[in-house]
Amino acid sequence: MKQQQFNCPVEATLSLIGGKYKPLILWHLVDCPLHYMELQRRIPSATPKMLSQQLRDLEDCGMIHREVIPEKPPKTVYSLTAFGESIIPVLDTMCQWGTAYMDGLDVQSPCCSAGA
Predict the structure, then answer these.
(1) Contact 79/65 with Cβ under 8 angstroms?
(2) Cβ distance 66 to 76 under 8 Å?
(3) Separation CA 1–CA 55 (nearest Å)
(4) Alpha-carbon span 66 to 44, nearest angstrom
(5) Cα(103)–Cα(99) distance, rounded to whole angstroms?
(6) HEC sequence for 47-78
(7) How far apart are CA 91 and CA 38, in angstroms?
(8) In a 3-state reduction of DSSP, which class is residue 34?
(9) Residue 23: which region, alpha, beta or left (left: phi > 0; alpha: psi -120 to 50)?
(10) Does a cis peptide bond (omega within 30 degrees of 0) precede residue 73?
């Protein structure tokens, strides 16, 4: 993937994991590799076309590895690469924040460097 110029670190992060299902795909791959159909079951709101596109984008940027297992019918297994594993702390933080939000806790926290 060609390195782009970014105005902000958040913009750089979103260029890689921004997308309707990319963070969910990465989150589901944290513990173990998954077959395409298992990802489809875990993210039922993603259409097959959208899921395939998001997986392709994540593979193109080097965050996931795609392996085709030559069976009949062939199976495709996805796993995180070392680069993909580097996003796990970000996903963990998103999970903690989302849990607090869902539990109705005050998750607002002022940030001195926001928008800087």
Answers:
(1) yes
(2) yes
(3) 15
(4) 20
(5) 6
(6) CHHHHHHHHHHHHHCCCEEEEEECCCCCEEEE
(7) 20
(8) strand
(9) alpha
(10) yes
- The tokens describing 52, both together, are 């395939």
The list of the chain residues with pLDDT below 70 reads 1-3, 105-116
CA–CA distance, 33 with 66 (Å, rounded to integer): 10
The pLDDT assigned to 5 comes to: 87
- Cα separation, 29 vs 23, in Å, equals 10
Q: What's the token pair of residue 76?
A: 């495709």
The pLDDT score that the predictor gives to residue 3 is 65
Q: Return the number of other C-beta atoms located less than 10 Å from residue 15's C-beta.
A: 13
What residues contact residue 1 under an 8 Å CB cut-off, 6+ apart? 60, 61, 62
